Amino acid sequence: MGQTGAMANRLAGSPSAYLRQHADNPVHWQPFGEEAFAEAARRDVPVFVSIGYAACHWCHVMAHESFEDEATAAELNERFVPVKVDREERPDVDSAYMAACQAMTGQGGWPLSIFALPDGRAFYAGTYYPPTPHPGQPSFRQILEAVSDAWRNRREAVERQAAALAEALGGLFSDQLLRLDSPEAGIDDGELAALARDAVVRLGQEEDGTHGGFGRAPKFPPSPVAEFLVRHAAGSAATAAAARALAGRTLAAMCRSALFDTLAGGFARYSVTADWSLPHYEKMLYDNAQLLRALAHWVRLGASPEFPADEAREAAALTADWMVRELGLPGGGFASSLDADSERGGRHVEGAYYVWTPGELAEAAGAHDGARLASVFGVRPGSPPGSHGGPGWPLHAGRELGADERELLARTRAVLLEARSRRTPPGRDDKAVAGWNGLAVAALADASVVLDRPDLLAAAERSAALLAEVHWNGQTLTRVSHGGAAGGVEGMLADYAGCAEGALALFACTGEARWYRWAGQLLDAARSRFVEDGLLSDVSLDLSGARTGATAALGGSRALDAMDNEAPSGASLLAGALTSFAAYSGSGEHRAVARAILAGLPRLVGQSPRVAGWLLAVAEATLAGPLEVAVVGPLHGGGASETRLLHRAALLDPSPGLAVALGSPDGGAAAGVGDGAVRPDGGGRAGAVVPLLQGRPGAPDGSPLAYVCRDFACRLPVRTADQLREQLAPGG
Predict the structure, then answer these.
(1) Are residues 584 and 665 in the same domain?
(2) Within its chain, how far is the Cα of 494 from the centroid?
(3) Domain span at residue 593?
(4) Element (H, E) at 199
(5) Which residue positions in the chain have pLDDT lower than 50?
(6) How high is the pLDDT of residue 675?
(7) Which residue, 425, 454, 480, sits at the end of a domain?
(8) Is residue 487 domain-resident?
(9) Sheet (strand 112-116) strand order
(10) pLDDT score at 670
(11) What total number of domains does the chain contain?
(12) At what angle do helices 613-624 and 570-585 cross, to 10 degrees?
């Protein structure tokens, strides 16, 4: 027992940046898979599964303290089969083992440290372990010794613990699967509206009235909730005004906090403190995509005292530019994250790239402006209490800037950015995650309209092209790509649905029917690959067929996490994409499946509306729609500019139930249709593919027309943007 044989570290050839970060460890890391578990069975040792991601600060800390240590590595190699997992590539594995950790310890986080039987069932779990004992916390080597001793001397108890946990988790996860084929599946508009109103009231009660946002430290951006509140504010419910005020306060608090990079844009993953003053500096694509879209939709709503539209527009523009500049990949698409750490003074320090001392501000901007900047943005000697880095403070005012302060920032931004560019930047994880890129496509498409930025739309199209041409093979979607090549496991439900959401947003903004067509293909694939016996799961039937590892940890159950946490759940994204697609296609079947998913809303809102943000946002789209607009007119040459003006007026309407289609009167598609790997069936003719555009003749004189249909009843077509806005207005 315990002989390591010919095992060695096998991570050097991994496409995952996170796994490659551990390729030089003396630990004999194995990638997650059947071979590693078979090796554990052959040697009769437990499996140690370490789960993290490239931008995780404490993952780096534990790697340096323990996994780079020769003595610790020798113990791991002798007594266990060590397995490394990138949670962003295998969210199914992460979800299963995180559930095990939370069940055993009442908490979770990353790095996630799991000890499992050779069949994958967990029996002991934790997160970060220090190299030496702390009060109330054993060292990692003490944990290794205790687990190894239990394996050798109390095997029956270990196996009973693993079996009981797997059975309990299996029952829990089975109960969360959504049934889509029941005649009773679905929910009516009255109940949806009541749930939405109740959610606004409860969110108002849960708001941090002092600092904004929700909950205590650590405080995360409530991105799905922000989207729901903005959508609810666009309606006419009795709680719309309260939602508008709450959304404004929430978005303003984040944009004025240390979470937001005042100089270059982009939001950090969370704040260590309840007042948003001390960020955990890693930056994630999914956070920024969601917040960019919420900001764009907020700007679309118009003026508000809680958060002026001009301030929101600037935050949106900075964030969009940051996404394209810092996360954009050469072949299209977006990298998944930036690290929290960067090098400073010969060591890796969290936040080193972003923080400033009074002296650094004076050196960059001059003594006078540097002193003013330090005063406005709270930069003092030393460092914030609780920070893990060296001296320096993030730039944030924590309030709305005055006119002279905005002028100071605008005047000094370039020199501060130039000074910062001389620092070592944080590392980037270059993998493109399909679902997160889908969120980015939708956000950039919507932002391109409110900011009037065609370059952002072009970036969205490049990302969508990567997804359609590299990740999609015509039948299945690969979750990640590296360097323009897809690899690894099939996408999760959130990948299929997130890409469909992005494709439909892109179709609305471009009129290119290939994106509508591809969204339909993705939704068809999702419904066939993630539904078994009428039950919806996060993991495809092929991937969940494995009997070891994550599936075994759940007692053989398939998994569905319907909660919207830091990102929308796969089920919520699917419901939203199905709702939008039904508005374009008229498909009652797609609409019914979306309603069946929405039927899970009472249970989620009952737990907390904070875990149902995106599904509540889908409910708003359902209640407000379908509000369909078909814009037809010349797409090239004379008259094209008038068509674009009418199209833009439609896209700027804030209704969450809006579905906008653009085409020529003869059914032709917008420029670019039929290019690339995803080609519509109609030879590039939008009318042959998009039912909303069918039977929509143009004006006799060739000028553009807009057809508005609300609740399945259509109005007479209009010619001007003012007439269109009048029809789109509530009661119009």
Answers:
(1) no
(2) 9
(3) 186-340+429-529+561-624
(4) helix 189-206
(5) 1, 547, 671-685
(6) 35
(7) 425
(8) yes
(9) 30-31, 81-86, 47-52, 112-116, 122-126
(10) 58
(11) 4
(12) 10
Q: What is the pLDDT of residues 156-179, one digit of tens each?
A: 999 999 999 999 988 887 777 888
Task: Indicate the SS3 state at residue 148.
Answer: helix
Q: State the burial class of residue 138 (Cβ atoms within 10 Å of its Cβ: 0-12, 13-18, 19+).
A: middle
Q: What is the pLDDT of residue 182?
A: 72
pLDDT one-digit tens code per residue, 467-491: 999 999 999 999 999 999 998 889 9
Sheet holding 478-482, edge to edge: 432-433, 478-482, 485-490
What residue type is 291 in one-letter code? L
**Which has the closest alpha carbon to 345: 278, 384, 392, 277?**
392
Under 8 Å between Cβ of 626 and 473: no
For the domain that residue 60 is a member of, what is the CATH number?
A: 3.40.30.10
pLDDT number for residue 549 = 61
Looking at residue 511, what is its pLDDT? 96
pLDDT value of position 672: 44
* C-alpha distances out from residue 201 to 28, 246, 361, 606, 652, Å: 53, 10, 44, 13, 28
Please tell me the pTM assigned to this model. Answer: 0.93
**Is residue 695, in this structure, part of any structural domain at all?**
yes
pLDDT of residue 669: 52
The SS3 assignment for 66 reads helix
Burial class of residue 101 in the structure, from the number of CB atoms within 10 Å of its CB (0-12 exposed, 13-18 middle, 19+ buried): buried
Residues 478 and 589 in one domain: yes
Residue 414 inside a domain? The answer is: yes
Tell me the two tokens of residue 293: 């879209």
Residue 535 lies in a domain: no
Residues 472 and 604 in one domain: yes
